[in-house]
Amino acid sequence: MSFSLLDVNNLSVFFKTDKGHLKVVSDLSFNIEKSEVFGLVGESGCGKSLTALSILRILPPNSFADGKILFNKKNLLSLNEAEMRQIRGRDISIIFQEPMTSLNPVLTVGRQIAEALTAHFDISQKEATSRTIELLRAVKIPSPELKIKDYPHQMSGGMRQRVMIAIAIACNPSLLIADEPTTALDVTIQAQILELLQGLRKERQMAVLLITHDLSIISEQADRVAIMYAGRIMELANTDELFSNPLHPYTVGLLESLPVAKGISLKPIHGFVPSPENFPKGCKFSDRCHQAIEECSLAEPELVEISEKHFVRCILINGVLE
Amino acid sequence: MMNSQREMNITDTQTFQNFDAPLLKVDSIKKYFPVKTSVGKPQKWLKAVDGVNFEIKKDSVFAIVGESGCGKSTIARLILKLLSLSGGKIFFKNKDVSNISRDQLKQFRRSVQIIFQDPFASLNPRMRIVDILSEPFKIHKTVPKGEIKDRVVQLLQRVGLTAEALNKYPHEFSGGQRQRICIARALTMLPELIVADEPLSALDVLIQAQILNLLQDIRKETSVSLIFISHDLKVVRYLSDEVAVMYLGRIVEMAKTEDLFQSPKHPYTELLLASAPKIRAVSKHYAASSEDNYQYDVPSPIDIPSGCPFHPRCSKRFGICDKAVPELKDISGGRLAACHLY
User: What pLDDT was estimated at residue B43?
Assistant: First the structure.
C-alpha cells in the first residue's frame, strides 16, 4: 500500500478569543506526493499560511491545530516537542516571504547556514564551513567563499532569499514549504528564484508546498493546486486540469479578475472576504457568488470528486441537488 | 460646477493657443541624492533619475514600468513637486512648472493629484473620512462650506462606498476600501492628471480587479489622464496607451503599449516580459532567465555600471556596450529604444 509523503487529514486551526474558539481553517484534507510541487492559492486571510505553520507546528501561541498531519506515516500533531524538533529543519523546512526579517541581522550568513547543519548533524566546524560553501554554490550565489562572511544587510533581496533557501535545503529535507517566496522580489529576480527552486526540487527529489496568491506562478510551477477560500479548499485538481477546466465559481472569478487583454473587461467578484466570525451559513462563498441559489446558504457542500482527481466544493457542480 | 473649477486652473491663458500641446512634458529631468561618504572622499551621488524625457497626451494613460530602484517612484514625486529637481524641466500644459511660486503651486496641485501604493500609510489614522475628504475643499475653497458634505458623499458613492463611511476612521476599512478613499481624495479637485504610484500592489487580486475597473470607469467619465506606475506587466498592458520601461534611472524603451508587448526591442524589456509569469501561455519549462542572468542582481543605483547600465545582465552585449551609454532614439517608425543593437 503506497502512502503520500504528507497527508493532511481534517486539519482545523482555531484562534482562542474572548468569545471562545474561532475556527479559521476548517477540515482541510490534502496530500503531497514525493517530489511534487503542490500549490496552495488564496487571498490574504484564507488560511493558507496557517496551514503551513501547523505542518511545522509553529502556530502563534493564541492558536492551535486539530486533526491529523501524517508525514511519512507519523502524525506530526501528536509528536512531543523534542521529536518535532528532529523533523523541523531536517525533514521539513520553510522559507518565508520576507527574507530580511527571517535572517538574523547580527550573524553572518555563513554562520546561519552552518547552524542549520550543526543543529542536526554531528559534524566539525570545518566540515560545516565547507558544506556551507557548497550550499551557497547550490543556490547559485557567486563567489561563495567570500559571501559566507557577509551580513544579511550587505545582500540584495534576491540574494537573501537564496540564503534562506540554502538554510532550508541544508539538511536535504523531503518537503520544503515555500510561503510566498517571491512576493517581496522583483519580477526578473522572481523568475530566477522560481527556476532555482524547480532545479533544486528535481536534483534533490524534494516535494514543495508552494503557497502564493499569484495564479500565474502556480500555473507555471505547480503539479497540483488547491484553491482556498475562508479556510476551506474550494477546488483541487491537477494544474493543467484546473486552468483548462475551472469549475468552482470562486476559481472562475479569480481567473476572470486577471487582466488578459485590452478591451476585455474584468469581472471581479464583488465584495470582500468576510472575517471568520461573519462567515455566511452554508457555502462560505455564497454571499459573493453570482450563481448562488437559495440552497447554497442552507448547508455547506462537501468537497466532491467530480472527475478523476478533480475535487470541487459547490452544489451547482456536484449535482447533489435533487 | 465642474467648469467653474476648471476655469480657475493655472494655464488657461495658454490653453487656447495649443490644442495639441501635451498635457505634461518632462524634459531631461534629473534627481540626484547625495550619498554619505567619509570625510575627504569625493561626494557620491545616487542617480535616481538621470535625464528622462516623455510627454503625456490629454485623455491617455501613460505607464512607467521597471524594477524596484529604477526611479519610477522618484519620477512620480518629481512631477507632483514633492521632490525638487536636480536638473531638467517639467511643463504642464506648456507652462514651465519647475520653478513656480507658492500660489501657483497651490493651483498646480489642484490639477495634478497622486495615489500612493500603500493605502495604510497614506491616510491619517486620526482623521475621520469626512475630514480627510473635505480638507481639499476647505483649502482650495472651491465649494461653499454648506455644500462640502454633500460633495464628500457624492465622492464616496462615486468610488463605491456609502455615507456610512463618513464618520469612520481609516483603520475601520480594508485595504481595498482605503484605496477607494485615496482615489476619492485624488478626485476632489477634479484633476486633469492623476499619478498612480503602484496603486494595486498592496491589494489582493480580486480587489485589484475591482480597483482597476473603478479607475477605468473614472477615466471614461472624466477623461482625466493617468500616469500609471507599476511593476505588474499584465495590468500595464490592460490599462495603458503608452509605456516607458525604466532601468536604473533612465528610460530604455518607450512605445505604444501593444507594440511594446508584441515586439519588445530592448533586451531588458525582453527579459522583463519573459520573467513575468503567465497563465498557461507557456509551459512550465520556459526559459526566462539564462545562466548568464543568474549571476546578476539589479545593480545599485549608486554604482551604475559603465556604458549601457544593463550590459552586465544583457545576453546580447558586444564590444561597445560597456563603454558608451546608448541614447534613447527612434529605431524604426516611432519606436524608441536605448540600445547599441539598433
Answer: 84
